[in-house]
User: What shape does this take?
Amino acid sequence: MKILIMCDSFKGTMSSTEVNRIIEESIQPYFVHHDVLTFAISDGGEGTLDAYVDATNADLYSVAVNNPYFEPIGATYARFNDTAMIELASAAGVNLIPKRLNPLETTTFGVGQIINRAIESGVKHICLGLGGSATNDAGCGLLSALGVRFYDKDDNLFIPTGKSLKDIVRIDTSQVSKKTKQVLWTVVSDVKSPLYGPDGAAYVYSAQKGANKEDIKVLDDGLRHFAKMVYQLYGIDVQNIDGAGAAGGVGAGMAAFFDVKIVKGIDFFIDLVDFKKHLPDTSLIITGEGTLDKQTLQGKVVYGISHLAKQHNIDVIAVVGQLKDEELISLLPLSEIIVIHKDKLPMEKIHRHAESDLRLAMQSWAFNKTAKIN
Assistant: This one.
């Protein structure tokens, strides 16, 4: 029988591939009569690029772009045949400016620069992994880099950020290149949030990007204005598109100007690694992510894997760094949950001992599991 290991990255500490490897090494001696298989996975957020490369052996390319404050940095994207995987966080992520977070000012412009370089290299299919963004600009920075022009009431051209979305009065798409329009677009999202409102991008996610209560209202009003402009100009209601609020509204921005397919990150990777073919003779799945919280229910890895396994009557064990809400356990079809850090610890300490703590937790679980069987 088979044991499948399919964990997301543990944000800021270990990639999906690293987590899977440590779990495999920790439990294999206790399950010598099982085939243990690992699959790198992501929900579309941090770790998407690593998971894609692991699954496809794609080549990596480095490009010079701008970070969320328009400062020069280097970023990397992956290419497999004529498909490019671009991780938004590589140019617009919170990890790039952890001590200067301010979604009123930050931009996704650098993400558009990566996309341009990929298209110039001959890519025909762009997969854009959302998640981990430091932005709330509805993707207007990204769109500006691709040729969409935004104008204010004085007909001045500008690149909207979170605080200036409200200033858009005219949009011109005549400068978007033919190549860009012809690209096949897949947006890989880690959430299904609407664009604005109490469950939207600003109110749910911008606080963790540095916004205070007053900022959140400004950001939400800006997203509402952006949606209003798109509807007036193009008749597209971006508010009601699943994933519109992902990455500070990038999902909505892409859907407004390009023929994009927005897919759940977990579904994208399940198909990519042909995961389902292994399910008929699988006895156990081990999945996990850094933190189990309310965002897990938006369609993140533990949610997606556990519900898929339930359809095949397969037990699922979730390994998580921290559990933020005990009530979530009853909402997920899990046979067991392993919480590595039951006490609240500073992130510095968690990072320092992440690998050894995971290894110890899994060895302890495997020993106890096999002891009960024997």
Q: What stands out?
A: Residues 48-266 form a domain with the Glycerate kinase, domain 2 fold (CATH 3.90.1510.10). The two ends are 17 Å apart (CA to CA). The chain is about 35% helix and 20% strand. The chain has two domains: 2-41+276-373, 48-266.
